[in-house]
Design a protein that fits this description.
single chain, alpha+beta, two-stranded antiparallel ribbon, two-stranded antiparallel sheet, extended, disordered C terminus
Length: about 240
């Protein structure tokens, strides 16, 4: 790597560039300034490299506003700050593939390659086992985080938000959302209402919400629809809601 070529009145950048041929001899930060048409300005090397992200237990270097790049992007997108996924170098991963046993980045368990679906036609296995990958897809479809779902489940007493049937072991509760906001199996995240059992999701809610308004006289379901657990949880301070 080579030293960044950016300099100004009384200063010269001391950062190194790992993509020197593609960034006009500059570090990434100064190349971004140049690309955006801004004047090159001095970057505090100490601030950028010697401070850790202010998010709990994150050891990544500060990028902006006291946060690392990943957590700053979460904040800028208006998402709650959550732990960033672990990264694994390619050599380590390829060694696991050759040995036929891969450590899942989700659950952390080491499983045979048959427990992982392929990324593409090349047949390369995903870094997440099939159950973990399915859960990641489900959370992505509803625009919620694993941490939020865990908090919501605890808030509901680990029971269905409607019939209060207890959790069914490894079977994940259904994520219910308001279909008048987002129709179908995807959600913007803001219209997620609660975690319910399969019967309440497929029969009780689907049937009840299809009724004309004057026939919706069941207080239990009316209370759930008017003040769903997710909404009540989000109105509470984190210290209370996370308990």
């Amino acid at each position: 790597m080579r030293i960044c070529s950016a300099n100004g009145n009384g200063w010269a950048c001391e950062r190194t560039s790992d993509r020197h041929p593609f960034t006009k001899g500059m570090c990434r930060t100064h190349y971004t300034q140049l690309h955006q048409g801004r004047a090159l300005s001095r970057i505090s090397y100490v601030t950028a490299t010697n401070r850790s992200c202010s998010f709990d237990n994150c050891q990544r270097a500060v990028s902006a506003k006291g946060l690392c790049t990943g957590h700053y992007q979460q904040q800028s997108a208006g998402r709650p700050l959550t732990p960033l996924r672990r990264k694994r170098d390619s050599a380590t991963y390829q060694a696991m593939v050759r040995n036929g046993i891969i450590e899942c980045l989700g659950c952390g368990e080491s499983k045979p390659t048959s427990e992982y679906s392929a990324v593409n036609r090349s047949g390369a296995p995903r870094p997440y086992c099939k159950p973990c990958n399915a859960e990641r897809v489900r959370l992505s479809n509803y625009n919620v985080t694993k941490e939020f779902i865990e908090r919501l489940w605890r808030y509901q007493g680990e029971r269905c938000a409607i019939c209060e049937s207890p959790g069914t072991g490894s079977r994940a509760p259904h994520i219910d959302h308001d279909h008048t906001c987002c129709n179908g199996g995807r959600s913007c995240g803001a219209c997620v209402r609660g975690l319910v059992c399969s019967n309440c999701n497929a029969y009780a809610l689907a049937w009840y919400e299809a009724l004309p308004a004057h026939l919706r006289t069941f207080d239990l379901l009316n209370d759930y629809l008017a003040r769903p657990p997710a909404k009540r949880l989000q109105e509470k301070p984190l210290a209370e809601g996370g308990a």
